[in-house]
Design brief:
Helix 2 (69-77) packs across helix 5 (188-194) and helix 3 packs across helix 4. The protein has helices spanning 37-51, 69-77, 94-108, 127-135, 188-194, 235-244; strands at residues 2-6, 9-11, 33-35, 57-64, 82-87, 112-116, 138-148, 152-159, 162-169, 172-176, 199-202. 35% of the residues are buried. 26% of the residues lie in helices and 26% in strands. It has a single domain, classed as Rossmann fold, CATH 3.40.50.620. The chain is of the alpha/beta class.
Length: 250
């Protein structure tokens, strides 16, 4: 069985985001980029399934500029077997991403597709669900545990009310939640080996997919600065400020 895993190139979660002076977007100059953390969890889960003898091959897919090869190589160093890059300079939005993933599913015929539940840049949490709909596959979102069987997968999902356990027929799309696993660090020998692993480069045109954005960003602004807090000496002072300054109680 093959497992197809996604890896999106995003600004590293430790970086403080800066907005461009013309408010046209986020400043990416000299900014550290990394694999989307939820996709790192997906890669780790796929590699663990391979190590357990449940799957034979882990394929990592990224969609973006040529710089995304860096993130693919990172995933190869973590244990993936080969990579696929759908290269485009267009800012690809969730539906177009889902169409690209669906095309690779048709090409590779994986038994399981694992994606992060969301990317930390847009926080859309749409792509996995769209892939399942487009490909006509079962889906199990927000997974905190995956048990792979011969023809099915039993997935524990994190929902508002607690945990839900479902069984889906393979092939299926699974999206990862934070508590599924803790990703490993790549060792130096594996980083060196990753340089020799194959990465296939395609374009949306090769797949017959139009990735033209459907949504236009008009303006990007940083959140308003919050006023510094104060320490009050008594409950009476606090109530007075809430009543007369904040106007939150009457």
């Amino acid at each position: 069985m093959k497992v197809l895993v996604t890896a999106k190139r995003v600004v590293d979660y430790n970086v403080s985001i800066r907005v461009l002076s013309d408010n046209s977007g986020v400043d990416l100059n000299n900014v550290k980029m990394s694999v989307n953390p939820f996709d790192e969890i997906a890669i780790e889960e796929a590699v663990r399934l391979k190590e357990a003898g449940k799957v034979e091959e882990v394929i990592v897919l990224s969609i973006g500029t040529s710089a995304s090869q860096e993130q693919i190589r990172t995933c190869l160093a973590l244990g993936a077997d080969r990579g696929i890059l759908i290269e485009t300079d267009v800012e690809v939005q969730p539906l177009a991403i889902a169409k690209c993933i669906k095309a690779i599913i048709d090409k590779e015929q994986p038994g399981l597709i694992i994606t992060g539940k969301q990317a930390i840049d847009g926080d859309n949490s749409q792509t996995g669900q769209m892939v399942a709909a487009l490909a006509g596959l079962a889906q199990a979102t927000f997974a905190s545990k995956i048990e792979l069987n011969e023809d099915t997968a039993t997935v524990t999902r994190e929902i508002d009310g607690g945990l839900e356990v479902i069984t889906v027929k393979l092939p299926a799309v699974v999206t990862t939640d934070l508590r599924l696993n803790e990703p490993r660090y790549a060792s130096l020998p594996n980083i060196m080996k990753a340089k020799k692993k194959p990465v296939e480069v395609l374009t949306p045109e090769d797949l017959g997919i139009d990735v033209t954005p459907r949504v236009k960003t008009l303006k990007v602004t940083p959140p308003a600065e919050r006023k510094a807090g104060i320490i009050v000496e008594t409950v009476e002072t606090l109530v007075d400020k809430l009543k007369n300054e904040a106007k939150v109680i009457s």
